[in-house]
Amino acid sequence: MTQTRLKSVKATSSNLVQHADAATVKEWYDRNEILLVDVRETSEFEREHIAGALLLPMSSFDPELFPVIPGKKIVLHCAIGKRSEAAGKMLLSEGHPGAIHLTGGMDAWKAAGFPTEVQIIPPEKPAKPAEPVFQCPPPGHILNDEYLQPLGISQSDLAARICILAGTVKDLVDGETAVDVELSLRLARYFSTAPNFWSHLQLDHDLEQARHKIGEEIRREITPRTAAI
Questions:
Q1: pLDDT tens per residue, the chain (229 residues)?
Q2: Domain ranges of the chain
Q3: What kind of architecture, by CATH, is found in domain 139-218?
């Protein structure tokens, strides 16, 4: 029997959010042992999702109304694993035991070659060159869509509460400024997230943008050391 590949990371001083890799989740999925919950937004889910997943968007995620199915594990997932881990912490804070999230999210699931369902819409016009699909939105979009709007917090109110200029929050939400380590700490303190949560969102976004912009050029110019030996 394949050994279950699980590890736990600290969510708070007393709660643990379990992580499971894509291969482990796929084994549970095939044995119908889990309720798979997608915490991405509706537009992301409609574009592509794992068959049978329950959609509970992070922007309206309510731990108090979360479904409980006796005998089944609850596995949360999003695009890259950031939102699902945050949702797991929310569940634990409300007393839901055994919260598990899929490490790497949909990216890891697809990288492992596991199937998804894709919405196919017949084209009304001649096909255009495919636009790149970005899975890592700017931190400001997540701040606005998953924290400010659901919680009814204005940009100016947030700025006052974390002691920064209102214009800085506006620029962050508009995607015109990046999250540095100080801002990450301020946001983490106010929203009770991990200290590096916001800076990791920024890094993931920057890496994805760079891959689309210059990744192919770098692959052409640079030969890996091991391949050159």
A1: 444 444 433 334 345 788 999 999 999 999 999 989 999 998 899 889 999 998 989 888 888 878 777 788 889 999 998 999 988 888 888 888 778 999 999 999 999 999 999 876 556 665 666 666 678 889 999 999 999 999 999 999 999 999 999 999 999 999 899 999 999 999 999 999 999 999 999 999 999 888 888 988 888 898 888 765 6
A2: 6-118, 139-218
A3: Orthogonal Bundle (1.10)
- Alpha carbons 220 and 204: distance in angstroms, whole number: 23
Q: Report the alpha-carbon distance of residue 178 to residue 195 in Å, rounded.
A: 16
The residue type found at 50 is: I
Contacts of 52 (CB under 8 A, 6+ apart): 29, 36
Q: Which CATH class is domain 6-118?
A: alpha beta
For 184, the token pair is 């990450």
DSSP characters for 141-165? HHHIIIIIHHHT--HHHHHHHTTS-
Alpha-carbon span 91 to 49, nearest angstrom: 22
Sheet of 73-77, strands arranged across: 6-10, 16-20, 100-102, 73-77, 34-38, 54-55
Residue 60 token pair: 């309206």
Is 139-218 the same fold as 6-118? no
